[in-house]
C-alpha cells in the first residue's frame, strides 16, 4: 500500500504558508493575502530523483493568526513533516517560528521539522535564521513562493525524508516479526 504522508505548515500570519503550498501543489501564485480562518489541505505527488518511486503527500495549511494556535495544534499531531515558515524580510516572524519550534520540542514531537524562510525575492539571507538552525541542528530552506525558487528542492527533500522513514519502518517491522518465528520454532520441539 502506498502511504500518504501528512505535511503541515505553521508560522505567523502573512509569511506565505498558503502561497508555498499553492505553489507546490498547483504551481500557482497570487499577490492577494487570503487570510486563512480554518485549515485546508492539498494533495501532491513527488517523483523521487533518480528513482521510480512516487511519494504521496497531503499538504495541510493552517491559520497563522495567534487566536487559532490551539486549533492549529490539533492538526500537526500526526504530521510526518512540519514546516515552520517565516518571512525573510520580517524578523518578528522568525521569532514566532522559534516559538513554534520550542512548543514542538516541549511536546516531544517526533515529526521531521524544517524551518522555511519565504519571500527570498525580497531578502535573500537571514543571518539570525542561519545561526539558529546551526545551533539547533534544524533543517533550513530558503524559498520564494512568488518566483517558485527553492520550492521544488524543499519538496524533494520532504519526499526523500518520507521515503527514508518508510524504509526504516519496513525494516523495523521485520525485526518485530523475528521473535515470534523463533518462539514457534522452540514450541515445535
Ligand atoms: N514578495 C513575496 N510575497 C509573497 C511571497 N509569498 C507570499 N507572499 C505574499 O504574502 C502575503 C501573504 O501570503 P499568504 O500565503 O496568504 O500568507 P499566510 O502565511 O498563508 O497567511 P495566513 O493565512 O494569514 O496565516 C500575500 O500577499 C502573498 O502574495 C513571496 O515569496 N514573495
Ligand atoms: Mg494562509
UniProtKB/TrEMBL annotation:
UniProt keyword terms in alphabetical order: Nucleotide-binding
Origin superkingdom: Eukaryota
CDD domains referenced in this protein's UniProt entry, alphabetically: Rab (cd00154)
GO MF term (any one): GTPase activity
One family name in Pfam for this protein: Ras
Family matches, as Gene3D superfamilies: P-loop containing nucleotide triphosphate hydrolases
Record's protein name: Rab1a
Species name: Hexamita inflata
